């Protein structure tokens, strides 16, 4: 038990470039304007985002430079550690080696600041002083609040109602950073009022909260919008995770055979996986790469690959992606960060190309894995991250059954310090497995927009 | 803003020895048996602690070896980073350099595992399978629960009632690690029942909770007791903090002029300060060393240096220390870890010798500092740690007023993720400054035991 546990890099080794997988993938299906169904150009996105981020969104350059002031803030916690889970291996009695990249070391507690910081920076450079966004679990909202506090930007967060109600401490964290937090659906926007009219008891959804935040930005020229996942530029920003992991694996002497991350919109998954996929796409060895999603919101495993809106009120462009339909409202289960009807276009494209696998788990099995991990390694995972832990444990048990000493690497995207209510429910037996409503899914998929380009 | 921020060491540089300040201090006043008032010998403590810890308690060896299995667990998060708070310096516009040693990177969120791990280890080596303890803020209880989960030891935690009620998530964390958590005063012990009889609405205190945990250990030969602060061996275990900081300051090129930590029982304070004091005591330069306590429980600044019991029910030995009297129950303010009537004998001795200063702050000023720190550096401090932050900011502002570029180092002993209820109360204006009851303090001090040895 005395061999090296943590594989750390010093702060000079924070990546200087983001890795853009668009350079190594086939040209993706065009993003379409929601009204005209014509391909959107950069100017169509200007009401929402500063031009630098729009250019990142459509870039096909392989490397995009990370501004020095952004890297300077990353120094507060990056490079994040790659940790060998020796005690978990021992508890499982597996010949597999299990590593995890731990993103919970960030001040906000997850990988989300990796994109919140550059998004706030590029907005500040464009003279923007106000940002709106949405948050599900609260990890993204906390991260943009943190970024806003560093750059003097006012941040308003529409927090999905069931999360807002379940997690007062998460809200308090955002307020400590100086952000304003609003329960969504709210009465402050047309989208929110429409959602409340349709269902006054709506638990909310990321789709609704996105509509509210986007609406505010569209209607107020001095306000821009920030999204914490799904979009190409967000996934791009997260690729520092995988780039660091590649360098850290050189220190371990191991090379991962299986790469695992949970996937809601796809950002922590892409962050770890894309740099490894890039190596494969440029002629390197092939590895298994697994996206893990909740069985109650099974975008990749049960969704359709089709053009759809990113939000409920259909304010966003149409993106070709794996989707359950923009009107789909998943049950109010505890991994709020995985309650999104769609999946990033790039992750969807990689799935269609057979570059990655997908797997869905019910939540009880995930919390069981989370508790086992906490008792072995000390860190209590966020409910989202327990999906990755579950899959890593199952892969390690498969290795045991098959007598294979494979190397497994998963992304521990965040800690669960603000999600202990879910653990309380788990221990008290109140937490149950939840299935999506099959009839609702069928009707939601039937309402997918008709797109001529398809 | 682009110079180095984090000063990290690799895991081979985790200290191999604890630093025992007893080697460099005059012989301290004897610890006395509560019944006989005769000096206690190692055998008197055997009902509570395994012999290895008792020997550490009374040792005068300067260096005590850290067992390799303990260091191996420390690898999960140690060495902890020394961080230059450049953004805070900038916000304060001070010529001072502010560094903090960040102990919140431990899985349990504070410095407490530094002692919980070795305590659990030495108990396990002695064949002990059950431990009891108390917890105020919850940081110590979480840490012993974490340590218990790694060594297969059953842990029962008596949590001070006001903390138990305020912090359900903290309880959930202990339960996630597999520990059992009981609100104190409880009906399970004579001490608890006596406290409830005296005051059914008692908010609890560390003194009462210690009595309960000690009573269980005394009455059950297969159960030992673990304390998270105050005792020499606990302070000893924490000295890895300061030892690492000394090495890290060599990397910075700076040398701290002022060293600051909050002090409840004294463990995080001693952990950072004693190794630096040791350098001074062995002929090195003199630095200012400041212990910061809450104005509502001002042990060093308003207490008496006298023999007193460590607990309310007078089950513990008599220790000469700064004390407010063992019957003193401080108001239920938010820094639960600082609500102890006494102060470690070694810290008290250092204070009497003029080696350290003490300062008391009201809580509103501390939370204000905590929020300022969070908005500059991202990390939300535990309420206890905000006392150190307040003092560091005040020292930096003094430097500004005096035009001095001093180097300040404080111990950020833990994060506040499980204490956001206190921040919610702060933002909503419900948090108020609280004074101790002067009449209660007078009566408590009047009840100090008469000790012939004095």
TrEMBL record, chains A, B:
Coiled coil: none annotated. Pfam families: PALP (PF00291). Pathway: Amino-acid biosynthesis; L-tryptophan biosynthesis; L-tryptophan from chorismate: step 5/5. It catalyses: (1S,2R)-1-C-(indol-3-yl)glycerol 3-phosphate + L-serine = D-glyceraldehyde 3-phosphate + L-tryptophan + H2O. The keyword tRNA processing does not apply. The modification N6-(pyridoxal phosphate)lysine is found at residue 112. One of its GO terms (molecular function) is L-serine hydro-lyase (adding indole, L-tryptophan-forming) activity. Its EC number is 4.2.1.20. GO terms for cellular component: cytoplasm. Keywords: Amino-acid biosynthesis, Aromatic amino acid biosynthesis, Lyase, Pyridoxal phosphate, Tryptophan biosynthesis. Its cofactor is pyridoxal 5'-phosphate. Belongs to the TrpB family. The beta subunit is responsible for the synthesis of L-tryptophan from indole and L-serine. Tetramer of two alpha and two beta chains. This is Tryptophan synthase beta chain. The gene is trpB.
């Amino acid at each position: 038990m005395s061999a090296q546990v943590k594989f750390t890099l010093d702060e000079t080794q924070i990546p200087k470039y983001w890795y853009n997988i668009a350079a190594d993938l086939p040209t993706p299906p065009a993003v379409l304007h929601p009204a005209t169904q014509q391909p959107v150009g950069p100017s169509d996105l200007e009401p929402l985002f500063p031009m630098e981020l729009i250019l990142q969104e459509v870039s096909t350059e392989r490397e995009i430079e990370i501004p020095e002031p952004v890297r300077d803030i990353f120094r507060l916690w990056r490079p994040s550690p790659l940790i060998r889970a020796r005690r978990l291996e021992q508890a499982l009695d597996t010949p597999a080696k299990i590593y995890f990249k731990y993103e919970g070391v960030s001040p906000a507690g997850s990988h989300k600041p990796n994109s919140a910081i550059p998004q706030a920076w590029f907005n500040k450079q464009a003279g923007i002083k106000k940002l709106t966004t949405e948050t599900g679990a609260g990890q993204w909202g906390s991260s943009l609040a943190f970024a806003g506090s560093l750059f003097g930007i006012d941040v308003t967060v529409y927090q999905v109602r069931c999360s807002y109600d379940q997690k007062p401490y998460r809200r308090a964290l955002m307020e400590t950073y100086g952000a304003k937090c609003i329960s969504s659906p709210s009465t402050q926007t047309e989208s929110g009022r429409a959602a409340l009219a349709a269902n006054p008891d709506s638990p909310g959804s990321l789709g609704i909260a996105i509509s509210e935040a986007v609406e505010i930005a569209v209607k107020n020229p001095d306000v821009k919008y920030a999204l914490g996942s799904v979009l190409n530029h967000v996934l791009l920003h997260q690729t520092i995770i995988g780039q660091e992991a590649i360098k850290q694996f050189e220190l371990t002497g191991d090379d991962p055979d299986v790469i695992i991350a949970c996937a809601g919109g796809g950002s922590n998954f892409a962050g770890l996986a894309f740099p490894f996929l890039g190596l494969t796409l440029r002629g390197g060895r092939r590895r298994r790469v697994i996206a893990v999603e909740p069985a109650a919101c099974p975008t990749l495993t049960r969704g359709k690959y089709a053009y759809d809106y990113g939000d409920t009120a259909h304010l966003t462009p149409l993106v070709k992606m794996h989707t359950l339909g923009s009107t789909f409202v998943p049950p109010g289960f505890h991994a709020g960060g995985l309650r999104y009807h769609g999946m990033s276009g790039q992750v969807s494209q990689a799935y269609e190309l057979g570059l990655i696998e997908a797997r869905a788990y019910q939540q009880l099995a995930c919390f069981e894995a989370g508790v086992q991990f906490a008792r072995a390694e000390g860190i209590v995972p966020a409910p989202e991250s327990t999906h990755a832990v579950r899959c890593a444990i199952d892969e390690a048990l498969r290795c045991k059954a098959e007598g294979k000493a494979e190397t497994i690497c998963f992304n521990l995207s965040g800690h669960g310090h603000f999600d202990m209510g879910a653990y309380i429910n788990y221990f008290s037996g109140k937490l149950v497995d939840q299935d999506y409503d099959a009839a609702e899914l069928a009707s939601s998929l039937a309402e997918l927009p008709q797109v001529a380009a398809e």
